[in-house]
């Protein structure tokens, strides 16, 4: 079947009209014609012909053998470690796929197809790239020989429809009481920062929080690769970074997009993830009238997130630590920390308020806490800074006894 697949694929490519963009339907018709001609004497079953049709179409218009994994809605992560080693995560468990690319060259064809769709470039002079698929899935690519055993592709899939807070409550990712508190805090324009380790559910949780943003506000989102699924906000602008390329287009980084967003009259700015010097610009936005802004970052705890923010600010601005801590304490009101437990579930572990600075250190006021080995998310403290709450028409007691 492999030889038959290659022959039909080659014949279809020879008959394609490259002077115009062919539709999927036209490609499928060409494939069906070639299968009919090439299998006259072979007596293939209907099932085998359908499989051959799907295989050829996926190789020409989709992601070849990866398309089957991309289409599986239960798969959340696809990991390609060279052409012969493909793994995927389903329901929190990692499996090895029997699928293989026929060669590194075939895998390179798929890689170039992925990056070309979103104006990205990956080659030997620029061997690492972040991009996304058409469905919003996040993609990281590292080419060989930087990836020693063959080029590596990592695809983080997201649900076609965003997961709402109600579903997270049903899964016990967060308690209904904590969800209601966050809803009131978002409506009251408290600025929130979501922290957590890799694959702890930060983007999913940020999407869920965004459902609490009032519909009449103007929102600007800023991401390396657009993957947020913010629904129900009509006045929404989505900005995405860009890498430099050989045609002379310069790179557009998150810092520049934040500067531009500030001139676009946003009510709130949402930065998908702070990884470096852009943390300073994000804090500046939070401190200059854009209360209620949201962002995420990698960290192992709320305290660790503050330390990492300090280091990220220092990457782009030579400021005294005392001044940086003042910016953090003034700009961020609440940190929500997520974790992935041993049973592979993703849960909110901590919700803390940044209380202020005492003896040169940022003081945290824990509001909710869950033990990292499991258990319930328990309320452990009361919000101390309530003026935003009261300015929005809520009373401090509205947060409690829910």
Structure, explained:
With 402 residues, the chain is an alpha/beta fold. It folds into three domains: 1-61; 64-157, Beta-Lactamase (2-Layer Sandwich), CATH 3.30.450; 165-399, P-loop containing nucleotide triphosphate hydrolases (Rossmann fold), CATH 3.40.50.300. The protein contains 13 helices and 15 strands. Helix 2 (24-38) packs across helix 3 (46-61) and helix 10 crosses helix 12 (321-331). The longest helix has 16 residues, at 46-61. The relative contact order is 0.09.
Oligomer: single chain
Rg, rounded, reads: 24 Å
**Strand elements, count:** 15
For CATH, the homologous superfamily of the largest domain is named as: P-loop containing nucleotide triphosphate hydrolases
User: What is the average of the pLDDT values?
Assistant: 87
Count of distinct structural domains = 3
Which fold name fills CATH's third level, the topology of the largest domain? Rossmann fold
Q: How would a textbook summarize the main sheet?
A: 9 strands, mixed
Low-confidence stretches: none
Summary tags:
402 residues, alpha/beta, Beta-Lactamase, Rossmann fold, 9-stranded mixed β-sheet, 6-stranded antiparallel β-sheet
What's the short story on this structure?
35% of the residues lie in helices and 21% in strands. The protein has 402 residues and is of the alpha/beta class. The chain has three domains: 1-61; 64-157, Beta-Lactamase, CATH 3.30.450; 165-399, P-loop containing nucleotide triphosphate hydrolases (Rossmann fold, 3-Layer(aba) Sandwich).
């Amino acid at each position: 079947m492999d030889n038959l697949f290659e022959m039909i694929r080659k014949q279809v490519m020879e008959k394609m009209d490259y002077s115009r963009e062919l539709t999927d339907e036209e490609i499928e018709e060409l494939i069906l014609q070639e299968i009919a001609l090439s299998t006259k004497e072979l007596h293939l079953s209907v099932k085998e012909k359908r499989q051959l049709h799907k295989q050829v179409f996926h190789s020409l218009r989709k992601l070849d053998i990866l398309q089957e994994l991309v289409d599986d809605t239960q798969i959340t992560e696809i990991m390609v470690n060279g052409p012969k080693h493909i793994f995927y995560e389903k329901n929190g468990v990692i499996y090895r796929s029997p699928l293989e690319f026929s060669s590194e060259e075939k895998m390179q064809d798929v890689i170039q197809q992925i990056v070309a769709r979103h104006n990205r470039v990956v080659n030997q002079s620029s061997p690492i790239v972040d991009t996304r698929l058409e469905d919003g899935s996040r993609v990281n690519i590292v080419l060989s020989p930087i990836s020693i055993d063959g080029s590596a592709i990592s695809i983080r899939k997201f649900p076609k429809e965003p997961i709402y807070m109600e579903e997270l409550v049903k899964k016990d990712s967060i308690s209904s009481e904590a969800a209601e508190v966050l809803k009131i805090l978002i409506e009251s324009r408290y600025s929130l920062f979501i922290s957590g380790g890799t694959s702890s559910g930060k983007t999913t949780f940020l999407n869920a929080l965004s459902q609490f943003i009032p519909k009449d506000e103007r929102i600007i989102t800023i991401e390396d690769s657009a993957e947020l699924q913010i629904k129900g906000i009509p006045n929404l602008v989505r900005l995405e970074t860009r890498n430099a390329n050989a045609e002379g287009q310069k790179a557009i980084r998150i810092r520049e997009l934040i500067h531009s967003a500030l001139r676009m009259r946003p009510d709130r700015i949402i930065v998908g993830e702070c990884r470096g010097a852009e943390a300073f610009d994000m804090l500046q936005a939070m401190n200059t009238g854009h209360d209620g802004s949201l962002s995420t970052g990698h960290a192992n705890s709320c305290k660790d997130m503050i330390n990492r923010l300090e280091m990220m600010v220092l990457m782009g601005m030579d400021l005294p630590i005392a001044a940086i801590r003042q910016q953090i304490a003034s700009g961020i009101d609440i940190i929500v920390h997520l974790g992935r437990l041993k049973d592979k579930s993703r849960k909110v572990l901590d919700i803390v308020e940044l209380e202020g600075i005492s003896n040169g250190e940022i003081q945290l006021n824990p509001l909710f806490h869950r033990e990292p080995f499991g258990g319930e998310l328990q309320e452990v403290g009361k919000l101390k800074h309530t003026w935003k709450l009261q300015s929005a028409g809520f009373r401090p007691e509205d947060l409690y006894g829910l």
